[in-house]
Amino acid sequence: MESHAKARFLTVAEVAELMRVSTMTVYRLIKAGDMAAVRVGKSYRVREDDVDRYLSSRYNAAG
């Protein structure tokens, strides 16, 4: 398991690109509590692990 010290944090734009969705979609997921994020000033950072976890849960739910 990856520790918090080694966790890679992505910007909302990077998460959107990774998921092939708009940044607004990522903001909606964060606000809805569907994706964990850390607030840094006026922007958010999302752990790469949390993106993977979200996608895995959605994939399993859809499958």
Concise overview:
The chain has 63 residues and is α+β, with helices and mostly antiparallel strands. 51% of the residues lie in helices and 17% in strands.
Write the layout of secondary structure elements.
Layout lengths: L8 E3 H8 L3 H9 L6 E3 L2 E5 H15 L1
Antiparallel strand pairs: 1-3, 2-3
Can you walk me through this structure?
This protein is an alpha+beta fold and 63 residues long. The chain has one domain. It contains three helices and three strands, in the order E-H-H-E-E-H. Strands 1-3-2 form a three-stranded antiparallel β-sheet. The chain starts with 8 loop residues before the first strand and ends with a helix. The model has no long low-confidence stretch (mean pLDDT 90).
Multimeric organization: single chain
> What share of residues are in beta strands?
15-25%
Order of strands across the widest beta sheet? 1-3-2
- N→C terminal distance: 25 Å
| Structural class based on helices, strands and sheet pairing | alpha+beta
Outline = globular
Instruction: Give the proportion of residues in helices.
Output: 40-55%
Biggest beta-sheet profile: 3 strands, antiparallel
The unreliable regions are: none
User: What order do the helices and strands follow?
Assistant: EHHEEH
Q: Using DSSP, what is the number of strands?
A: 3
Number of helices, counting only DSSP H or I runs of 4 residues or more: 3
Roughly how many Å is the radius of gyration?
Answer: 12 Å
Mean pLDDT: 90
Question: How many domains make up the 3D coordinates?
Answer: 1
